[in-house]
Amino acid sequence: MTTKRSFFDRLSGNSSVGDSFDSFDDELPTTTIPARKETRGRTGESAGRSAPLDDDLPGSEGQLPVDVHQTASDIIVRAFVAGVRPDELSISISRDRVEIEGSRMEREQVVGPDYFTRELFWGSFSRAIMLPQEVDVEASSASAKDGLLTIILPKLDKARQTKLKVKSG
């Protein structure tokens, strides 16, 4: 007598060689996907690429990863810009949007086959960030230290009211 396998056993694929499958398993089509052959180096990384990645194509632009958070009075944007000089950065601020653009150039050229691992991004990058609240463009500031760009954007207080005196005359 064959014992019916539990749902978990069927889901996880636990089975012994002699197990029989439910009838719905027999109805599934079987397809064979050819395995992709890769050349592996001694570190386990792919030894070479036959085609360049999209990031390596001329004219491709990277997207800068950012952290955005708020305090009671400011919205703060942080981004790693290691290897980029401050004069190579362009920051545009409007009341509801920040755009950061820049370029990180390789200081020395290394021939493709001489690389073992290539994960760093080189080239131009940009990032547009929609802000959750309007900010004071004139009072905003940006600084870079140890490769970390910090942009401080003071929030506009929409609830703040002032009383105007009417002048006669």
TrEMBL record:
It comes from the Bacteria. Residues 57-169 form the SHSP domain. InterPro entries: A-crystallin/Hsp20_dom, HSP20-like_chaperone, Small_HSP. Residues 1-63 are annotated as: Disordered. Transmembrane segments: none annotated. Pfam families: HSP20. Residues 12-21 have a biased composition (Low complexity). Belongs to the small heat shock protein (HSP20) family. This is SHSP domain-containing protein. It comes from Candidatus Kaiserbacteria bacterium RIFOXYD1_FULL_47_14.
